[in-house]
Amino acid sequence: MINATKPRLRFAPSPTGYLHVGGARTALFNWLYAKKFGGEFLLRIEDTDKSRSTDESTRAIFEGMEWLGLHWDDGVVYQGANLARHQADARRLLENGSAYRCFCTPAELDERRREAESRKEAFKYDRRCDRLPPEEVARRVAAGMPFVVRFRVPEGTTAWDDLVHDRIEFPNKDIDDFVILRSDGTPIYNMAVVSDDIAMEISIVMRGDDHISNTPKQIQLYRALGAPLPTFAHLPMIHGLDGKKLSKRHGATAVGDYQHYGLLPGAMLNFLALLGWSPGGDREIMTVPEMIELFSVEGLQKKAAIFDPKKLEWMNGQHLSMIPLEELEPRVTPAIVTARLATEEELVERRDWYLRLLDLLRVRSRTIDDIVRQAGPYFLEEIEYDPAAVAKNWKDPAEASALLQATRDALAKVSDWKTESLEASLRALTEQRGIAAGKVFQPLRVALTGLTVSPGIFEMLVQMGRDLSLKRIDKAISALAV
To answer: Which one of 6, 36, 173, 248 is the catalytic residue?
Structure first.
């Protein structure tokens, strides 16, 4: 095993699509481990599949990581730039007898595979090219015959102590002599990964447990190259609520989507951290510093994690409530501006009022989009009345109009437009009329916001101010008269 004084971990995505939440979870655990134990977190873009790798996908990975705050140490490593080293390592394996050239064509291999299937046997390469005399191999190479390089799987068992799954063993007889170099000289995944991890001095390989079947092959490559083994940790898969592997059918699976849905990166990290790890007890809501402090290998779980979008939304609401307003403001402002509720300059001019508004609205919000939706009535000249709100709270237009007029008259007499004075005025009105407070508050809420849900009625009146509040009530009375 590698005995590095400073742990070195890496996240190694392929740039063939967006940053998946599963990949983000893997990156987070590597990052948390590095932060907790004073290590280094490296980023490697595995772009050897040139036909599928795109610059757009690479940018999406960078943007997703940066939004989450998972900053990597040193420069980005691009696997495709290391072809010469991959080939040199494969040649070393040929030279030390750990690998051999295979001249069998794809058509020949397909024929043997069909023959094995007809006998109801599992196909396994029969090592016929490994039995070729050295002079015959040399002749074929000199003649320009195409070949792949196969690794010669040794006898025995390949085992390792996994940080998540404890002891894992594979009988080597179940592993085919796998290809490490294609006929065009490009490396197969396992060869490139091991070559890169050795060069980057990676001491802990933490990844999804769908890679467990690759690990015995990689361990054999490490040993054949005379390199120390890293410690392996295979994280549980992430499933949807139906128990099946998370995919697009379960909804959004791209980190970028959740950014645009109005989630906070801290909430996303909190949610991802609990997909396969437990801090102990019933602890759920954590800041990033708290996650780093609580992170431990012992908390990593074996069983599959469940991705519950509703829980993510709830968790985001918790983070909205606890994040400092100074941090929330720059995340909400672009959404307010995009919704054309106000310009950035206007928000700067009314910053104290704006911060109070954010503090008021975030209590009943689960996403930034919720805050923006609730913010509309505080900025817009005209509001629309939600039909459901009207049907519920203005059932009898004449009665609702009379009640709103009485409410307006009571509020107009309030000289000190503060919560205590406003509450005293409206509660006095309900006592005079002998009705429950809700009978006054709910029609008023619809008049002020057009909605049935809002912050507390008195806090809302203060935030809107006297002029806008009375203007809204007047417009509601006019609307009811139509």
So the answer is: 248
Q: In which residue ranges of the chain is pLDDT below 70?
A: 1-4
On whether both 409 and 367 belong to a single domain, the answer is: no
In terms of residue numbers, what domain contains 415? 387-481
- Residue 25 in any domain: the answer is no
> Cα separations (Å) of 170 from 173, 175, 242?
9, 8, 31
CATH number (domain holding residue 323): 1.10.1160.10
Residues 365 and 289 in one domain: yes
Q: What is the pLDDT of residue 395?
A: 93
169 and 157 in contact (C-beta within 8 Å)? yes
According to DSSP, the residues that pair with 432 across neighbouring strands are none
Residue 231 lies inside a defined structural domain of this protein:
no
d(CA 299, CA 469): 53
The pLDDT value recorded for residue 282 is 87
> What is the DSSP code string of 258-313?
HHHTT--HHHHHHHHHTSSB--STT-----HHHHHHH--GGGB-SSPEE--HHHHH
The closest alpha carbon to 338, from 369, 317, 367, belongs to 369
Query: Which of 331, 357, 379 is at the close of a domain?
Result: 379
Considering the entire predicted model, what is its pTM? 0.90
Q: How far apart are CA 109 and CA 115, in angstroms?
A: 10
307 falls within a domain: yes
Pairwise CA distance, residues 273 & 54, whole Å: 28
Q: What is the pLDDT of residue 164?
A: 97
**343 shares its domain with 402:** no
3-state secondary structure at position 63: helix
Examine the fold and report which residue of 356, 379, 402 is the final residue of a domain before the chain moves on: 379
Q: Which of 360, 328, 343, 325 is nearest to 448 (CA)?
A: 360
Catalytic: 471? no
